[in-house]
Each structure stands twice: as C-alpha cells, then as structure tokens.
Amino acid sequence: MKTLIKNGRVVDPSQNLDAVMDVLIEDGVVAAIDKKIETAADEVFDASGLVVAPGLVDVHTHLREPGLEAKEDIVTGTMAAAAGGVTTIACMPNTKPVVDNSIIVSGIKERAAREGYVNVEVIGAISKGEQGKELAELGDMAEKGAMAFSDDGHYVESSRLFLLAARYVSAFDKVLISHSIEEELNHEGYMHEGAVSARIGVPGIPYISEDIAVARDCIIAEYTGAHVHIAHVASKGALDIIRRAKARGVNVTCEVTVHHLTLTDEACSGYSTATRVSPPLRSMDHVEACRQALKDGTADAIVTDHAPHAPEEKDVEFRYAPNGFTGLETSLGVILTELYHTGLFTINEIIDKMSTAPANIFALNAGSLKAGSPADVTVIDLDKEWTVDNTKFYTRGNVTPFNGKHCKGKAVATMVAGKFVMRDGVVCGK
Amino acid sequence: MAKATVSLGGRDILDLDSLSVEEYELILKTAAEMKRIMKRDIKKVPSLRGKSIINLFYEPSTRTRTSFELAGKYLGADVVNITTSSSSVVKGECLRDTILTVQSMACDAIVMRHPIEGAAAYAADVSKAVIINAGDGAHAHPSQGLLDMFTIREQGKDFKGLKMAIVGDILYSRVARTNIAAWTKLGADVHVAGPMTLMPHDIEALGVTVHKRVEDAIEGADVIDILRIQLERQQKGLFPSAREYARIFGINEKRLALAKPDVTILHPGPMNRGLEISWDVGYCDNAKIRDEVQNGVAVRMALLFLTLTGGKQIENIN
C-alpha cells in the first residue's frame, strides 16, 4: 500500500523542515520525503495549500477504560483523537481498577491495538491503587511497555514515596509524571482564588498549592537525577520554579494545557460546570505566564488533559461537578485560533509543542516525518473556519468550555501507520 | 405611586449585581406600599390570588422562609414549603429534576435557599417559573440586601458618599457580597474588616477598602453591618477562639463610640450575642435589627408582586 501526499507544506520540527514537499508513505512508514516524488501510488493525496505535519502527540488524556465506560472508552476516545488530528495519546491510570499492574497495561495496549483508531500509550500508576502508600510494580509495567508513571488526579503526598519512586524508576529509564498540587491547600476550594472567586463566593484554590508541590518535585528530581515531568502546570510561580530548575540542569520537563493557555477564571463567573477543572482556570497573569513559558522553553508540550465525564455527572451544581472536560476534538483548532492566528506562535513552534517535543520527552517513536518513521501524519487547513459543536463529538464526554467557540484552523486528515483514520472531519478506517 | 418605567415581570432575582439602580428604586417604592398593607388590620390583598409559590429550602432557615411565606400569603398567593428533610432530595434526586418536578405542578415562583454558590443561576436556567434566590452558598442573598437598603433609607440615609462598614466573616458571607455589590453601585464608600483568615483574597477588586483593625473600619461609619459568625468556622481553625474573636472583632459600646452618633447598626441574624455583637449594642437605639425583619416581609412582598405581576395591579393595592 503506497500513499503519496503531494504539494503540502511539510512542517516537521524534528528535521527543522518547513517547505513544500511530497511525502511517500509505504507499508505504514514514511518511505521518502522530497521536493518532487514521481511514482505510482495507490492513492495520491493533494495537500496543496495545507500543512503536512507529524501526527499530533497528546501525552495527557483519560480514556476511562477499564471501569468508567459511561464517561469514555478506548474506541470513543481514540475516535475523538483521530477527529482532532491526534495520532498518539497517552492515557492516565486513574481508572477502575487503577492501572497499577502489567496485566492492565497489556490489556489496554492490546485492546487499543485491536479496536482503537490511533496509537495508545499507557501510563501506569506510581503507587498501588494510586493510594500513595507503596510503589506499584513499576518494573513489571515498564517491561510491558508502560510509557511513564503517574498517580494523576492525586499528588504523591509522601515525599519519601516520591523519592523512592524516583530512585527506583531511574533504573528503567522511565519518567515520573507528577500531578503537582498540594491538596491540603486546596481545602474546600474549587476555582482559582482571586478577584472572580471573591466576587462570586466560590471557595478559592491559592495558586501556591502548585508552587509548593512543584518545588518539592524539582528538589527530588535534582537529588536523584530522575526525570520528573510536571503535568498541567497552570501557575506562574510553579513555572518560574521549573524555569530555574531547568537552568541548573535538573532533569525536569513540563506540559501546559490548551485551556490554561486560552481561558481565564472569568469563564467560571456563570458557574458553568464546563469550566471546572484541576488545576483551575486562573487569572490572565497566569495565562500569560503559561504562554511565556511555552515560548522560552520552560514548558515543553501542549496537552489537552482530555477528561470526559458523563453528561449527568456535569449537570449538577458547580461545587458538586467533577473536575475536567473533553479536549481532543478542539485542541488544535483552539490553539491555532488563539496562539497562531494571533501571531504569538509560529506553526513550527505549535507542531513542536504538540508533536515532536512530547514524543521526545517520553522517547516515543513519533513526532517525526523522517524517512523510516511511522507514517503518523496530520494534515491541517490553517484557515478553515468552524464552530465547536459538542453534539457532533465522537467523545462520550460532550462537556467543554469551548462549545460554540468560533475557530480558525483544523485538522482535515489524520493518518496512523499509513492509513487514513479521519478525512474531512469524519473518522474512518475500521 | 409613580408610574413604573422599569418592569421586573417574569424576571429571576438571583443577585443584586444584575439589577440596576432603577430596579432597586422600583422595589423599594413598592416595598413601602407593602409595608402600609402590613400595618392594616386585615393584612391581606388579592394581588397574587391564584398564584402559587414554592419555598424550596435546602438549608435550615427560620426567618427568611417564614418571611417569604407570609409575604406570599399577605398577597393572597398559595405558598408551599419544601425542605430537604421531607423531599426526594434525600432519595438522591438531582436539582434539575427537583426543579422540573416542582415546575410541573404549575407553580409560578420558586423561592430557593441552597448551600452551593451558583445554584440559583442553575435553577433559573432549568426553570420556567420565576426563581427568587433566598441565598446560594456564599454568593448572594438579594432579598436581604434589599431589606438592608430599605432599612438604611428609612433612617434617612442615602448611599452616596456614606461610610459603610461590614464586619466579620466576609469570606463565607452571601450578605457581605450582596451588600458590597449594591452599596458600591449606589456610590457608598464600603469598608470591610474581620479576621484575615475570613477575608477573601483579592477582595479589593470589588471596590472595597480592607482594614486589619475593626476600629479603622467603623471609625466615622454611617452604617455598620455586623455579620453572624458561624461557630463551625472556629472548629475549622479559621480563628483561635470565640473569646478572642469577641475581644478583638466583636462590636461593643466602646468600639461603637468610634462611629457617627447616628450610626445605623444592621445584623442579618440570628445574633450570637456576646460574640460578634455585645448585649448592649444589640439593644441600643441605633440597632435596627428588628426593623430589618419587618422590612424583610415588605421587600419580599414587593419582589413576589413585581416578578409575578409585572407591577400591573399596583392600583388594586392602594
């Protein structure tokens, strides 16, 4: 099976490439990439006027399987990814049961390979049951191909346990992903503590709950030399701590989310549960800090933290709603609208932060269109105008703060291992 | 009665931020008429005959619920009370379904008290019936704000340039948020004080002056609003002891002497005498706490009347 993608503007940060080129795909890998490729192919895809990029990599999602299929499952979650132009997703272990042993790691990978639409990487739990008490079988899970380890949804409160995890995991060359939020400081809070929470009477979460947790994680990374990746950083203070740690050579990386780059706590002023998330949407100074961190390299990757919930779980009073919302089908459109078309970031920077850089952090065979790489490709129409409509979503969790948003820029085709899994917004190929 | 240029017919009353000064005036004028009705021998008019009002209370309340109930009854409406202990809420029914169920019984207004901020706005989204917020968490308590406004006006005080002090637990207080919103909108100079653990971060953004010492807040004040201290706040460690609270933040005669001689003292009730307010201050001539209760019925009559009739039958009342 040969596919020739012709005349696209190839943007590939892994080889510093931004030029109109042809890409030949053969047997699921990139066979050649050149100015002009003339060869017979089973399909010629005309990408004139479109961006051809390495498939997007989203290292922070929740597929909710096993056990929480009312929110999402591997099929609906990977369809959402395909629809959004994302070819590799990593799923967090806070399922029922928790992904804390190699059987569940293998089970998710096998089901995803059989029924999923995109590549699925599995993140195992750091502690058994994400209880924060004793280490899960990290070595066993690493052998079965767990991408990284995290107790996402919970901070590993015990500094001793996190120190042990950092030491233990370094032997397996795996990354610890920390949900760095000092939970005691959150107390009863469920939105950012600031002028908006003061006005609308919602108990606030001080942003220093991130800073304090991130500082400890950086200290443990520095002491052990282990690679610690900080999930969903949303505080200007935490970003500054990471910036200083990186400058000292500490093996720490971090991600920022689409929503923390584009929304403020003003979105919460109508008490919409679609704005409820952890860390919470913060004030503009923190949004600016996230953008600055992305620009200066403090923040390495953009993620969605795609966290679907069943509609009835979100259709409650603000305080009772679970944190998180869906994101895979809106991430690229929102980022292009808010960061690219505003002139803040180049398309090269965006593809790097949404594909090449996250793939490199976790040593994934992704994020590149070099010859020999897996043929995971996202074709993007930078100027396509569209409106987010959650009734058309593939994900089961239809709640998003971006519903109704007018966007400019969208993935128009998604290819995984040489096969199209989405064309013109329609998921296909199974 | 001046002809109304604004109408509240069919409007939800969720907070005082979303009402205009003209709408405040309409409510206060109407409440003055209602207060006259309350002073009649037969305190009943047929203005809301055939209308039904449901008091849906998710939190214990005596004065607000009773006040709304009497307000509806004085105007001839049928009023039913639902409290959480006797409803399907204990069986796990969600708020959407409760509102839809109540609305299906052809009720015209739902007066709701709920422990969660934003619950009133949620109910208003769901409900076709008028929603009157009788308190949603730490967010808003508009009828309390309006009765305070009425009481202050009754003392001959207009708001512009007056020094208003709000003292106590600002963090958890819907009364504080409501009065801050209304009083700043009316041009008053609003000052707040209390333990800094009970002061919202960034509250200056609401246009108030924060004081570390309660004396500085009440010095030269025209109005002092003393908030109720919930004893559970102490249990959560937000201040060291009731004794220390009373000594450092309680309003007593000595502190009161710092205010203007004609200062108006408000308290949303029920009072913890000897804690946030001393015995003598609670009973002094400047304390208008019982006026607030009486005015509360009048203001609530006005709210029900204006939202359910659009104010069209005002001539029937006179």
- What composes the largest sheet of chain A? 9 strands, mixed
- CATH level-4 homologous superfamily of the largest domain in chain B: Aspartate/ornithine carbamoyltransferase
Cα radius of gyration of chain B in angstroms: 19 Å
Number of strands of chain B: 9
Oligomer: heterodimer
Uncertain parts of chain A: none
SSE ordering of chain B? HEHEHEHEHEHEEHEHHHEHHH
CATH class of the largest domain in chain B: Alpha Beta
Share of helical residues of chain B: 25-40%
The CATH class designation of the largest domain in chain A is: Alpha Beta
Strand residues, percent of chain B: 5-15%
Explain the overall architecture.
The complex is a heterodimer of chains A (430) and B (318). Chain A contains 13 helices and 19 strands. With 430 residues, chain A is α/β, with parallel strands linked by helices. Chain A folds into two domains: 97 residues, Urease, subunit C, domain 1 (Roll); 307 residues, TIM Barrel. In chain A, the strands form three sheets. In chain A, strands 1, 2, 3, 4, 5, 16, 17, 18 and 19 form a nine-stranded mixed beta sheet that branches. Chain A has an eight-stranded parallel beta sheet with strand order 6-7-8-9-10-13-14-15. In chain A, strands 11-12 form a two-stranded parallel ribbon. In chain A, a hairpin with a 2-residue loop joins strand 17 and strand 18. The radius of gyration of chain A is 20 Å and the shape is globular. Chain A starts with a strand and ends with a strand. Chain B is an alpha/beta fold and 318 residues long. Chain B has two domains: 144 residues, Aspartate/ornithine carbamoyltransferase (Rossmann fold), CATH 3.40.50; 132 residues, Aspartate/ornithine carbamoyltransferase (Rossmann fold). In chain B, 39% of the residues lie in helices and 14% in strands. In chain B, the strands form two sheets. In chain B, strands 7-6-5-8-9 form a five-stranded parallel beta sheet. In chain B, strands 2-1-3-4 form a four-stranded parallel beta sheet, sandwiched between helices. In chain B, strand 5, helix 6 and strand 6 form a beta-alpha-beta unit. The radius of gyration of chain B is 19 Å and the shape is globular. The mean pLDDT of chain B is 93. The interface between A and B is medium-sized, with 21 and 23 residues.
